Amino acid sequence: MSGVLAAFRDPEQLRTALQRLRAADLGTIETYTPQPLEEGSSPIPLAILLAGVLGMAASFLLQTYANVWAYPLDIGGRPPFSWPSFIPIAFENGILAAVATGVFGYLLANRLPRLYEPIDEAAAMRLAMRDRWCVAVQTEHAEAARWILQDCEADSIEALPE
Asked: Among 74, 77, 98, 140, which is least packed by CB within 10 angstroms?
């Protein structure tokens, strides 16, 4: 499958090109931009919150089980269920679970680590993270995609590297 990569100076030009490319239904479209085009909600903050709460609860329950049922010790006359002493460790384990979920969630959401992609060899990609708005179209109809991108006044149009 071949494709086309185009760079635009303006995000509005890219949005126009995306509308026309989606209407033409030519193939897979992927954008490379210095800022997000559309603000969407991410599931990562909710996953971090849930992991933190579940990690804290699991740690608290594990300490309760160990100190009350599995291995009760009489230390200085304190009761077996001395919950205030469980809070600091439960809190720390909740933070650990939340941070680990955040790191791995970020990596999964961004499909990382990808150490090499052939598209990185394209000349337009050198400017994609600074001031260019790029779109890549993987399609069997590369010429039709090229015409649409030319009509949308792309700064540069090149074939996708294999």
From this structure: 77
Each domain of the chain, given as residue ranges in start order, spans 2-34+128-159, 44-109
Q: Which residues, listed in sequence order, are joined to residue 139 by a DSSP beta bridge?
A: 2, 27
Select from 1.25.40.10, 3.30.70.120, 2.30.110.10, 3.40.50.970 the CATH code of 2-34+128-159.
3.30.70.120
Rounded Cα–Cα distance for residues 160 and 42 (Å): 29
Q: Around 113, how many Cα atoms within 13 Å sit in the side-chain half-sphere?
A: 2
Collapsing DSSP to helix, strand or coil, 147 comes out as helix
Quick: pLDDT tens for 23-80.
999 999 999 988 888 878 889 999 999 999 999 999 999 999 999 999 998 888 888 8
Alpha helices (H) in 11-138, listed in sequence order: 11-24, 44-64, 87-109
- The model's pTM is 0.71
